DNA sequence: TCTGAAAATTGGTATTACCAGAAGGTTGCA
DNA sequence: TGCAACCTTCTGGTAATACCAATTTTCAGA
């Protein structure tokens, strides 16, 4: 028998063991797993059981089985597991600056009057939420997602939703955003209005600029809210990085 | 034998057939699948093969197997959390054009020599894969992800991985990409090389342009591969949209 | 040194057998 | 009559074995 918990389904124990070994660096990507018969011997199980475990890995996309040749490591476990877990608020906002800027530009060429009306309403709601000390920032999120939807591109919308979701997925990002809000750093209505006006004018370049300006300001706000020593390094790195980027693209 | 493509891995054919039946409403959620021995008889395969197929469903979370009782339907295929299920290949590529262009620009300001070397190697691998008629396009994916990583921004990387994953999640996108590859529309090495050179020169604007040019070409390839009436509409809409966007941002 | 065929290796599938848990019916007792 | 214990049967769990097919390696012969 393998080693893991011996309850039910032996193949699962074996699969777990193999995945464990994979993530420990034995069997790097591209290498071949031992032959089914060898694995059966090594783990003292029958070959059918080994086959079942290997199939479990195959279905998860971890290995690729080639007839007559062997099972080859295709991807390491955890390679996709949570690559967004440690995203910092800075990275997140930087990504939004890049992506939402382009999304706004595309949206400016695709919006209709209904979209404009909806976005206008959301700007109003952002203003209202700013008054309320206990208010959330849901209107802000809705504003950005409405623009993403206005691109008429589900993939664009989807990716931007993904970014917003990372905000709550990543503990660090979540924390810093809360800190910023607590410090009275709130969505500036003027910045949102500028984006709205650019969309209304169907001017993609203006929309891109306005959105970038807005998110630059958000980034500044985050930097301002950062005082902990733990984050000081990240802050400095981000500033240097941004300056380098700004110089190079100027 | 089952019915599906009879290539390799009988269990996969059977798994496909079962998934097909699941999504057709036979075996609703909570019901029990026929016993392994019965399925073996019905599909004229051996019981081990049936077990392998059921395990494939189990790993995908479609069924739950209870010892001594049977395999019960847990979730329907496509019931999954997939807000990107209906993304078209056009939308996907358009999104990549916008986002990966910016990512390339950022990457150009952040790459180091090791990144360059890695990417160079991947361009080579793309060339090799193009020679192989049965080759996959994994090097292409790796190329784009390596650039995303070179941004030194996990959020950017994450979002771009997300887009690539949509490609396999969305049946329509997957289909069209396969069709395109079948039509000998393969990653053009020159386009990738141009991106590489821009990165080597640390020139963000050139990197953005090269990446956009590359993905524009991919989009053209997809349009070219589209002949079905069913897709004609999407094709036309995409063209009109792109032209409008191009005019407006010119 | 190169080539090609044979041999060894490896996955693919089928058979068969027996064990263990679950389910449902049957029997026997209260 | 009703309930509980038992037993039969069904179902998955695993093992052992045999043979096929594709691939890879080895090695003899040119």
**Total separate domains of chain A:** 2
SS strand fraction of chain A: under 5%
Please, how many helices of chain A? 11
Shape of chain A: elongated
- What is the name of the CATH topology of the largest domain in chain A? Four Helix Bundle (Hemerythrin (Met), subunit A)
Determine the oligomeric state from the structure: homodimer
Unreliable residue stretches of chain A: 1-6
Q: What is the rounded distance between the termini of chain A?
A: 64 Å
Total number of beta strands of chain A: 2
How would you state the average pLDDT of chain A, rounded?
83
Any idea what the CATH superfamily of the largest domain in chain A is called? GntR ligand-binding domain-like
* Biggest interface between chains: A-B, 53 and 54 residues
Layout: helices, strands, pairs:
2 copies of one chain form a homodimer.
Chain A: H1 10-23, H2 36-43, H3 47-59, E1 63-66, E2 70-73, H4 89-108, H5 113-131, H6 138-150, H7 154-169, H8 171-182, H9 189-200, H10 204-225, H11 229-249
Antiparallel strand pairs in A: 1-2
Helix pairs in contact in A: 1-3, 2-3, 4-6, 4-7, 4-9, 4-10, 5-6, 5-9, 6-7, 7-8, 8-10, 9-10
The first copy, chain A, binds a DNA duplex (30 and 30 nucleotides) through residues 8-11, 35-37, 45-49, 51, 54, 65-71.
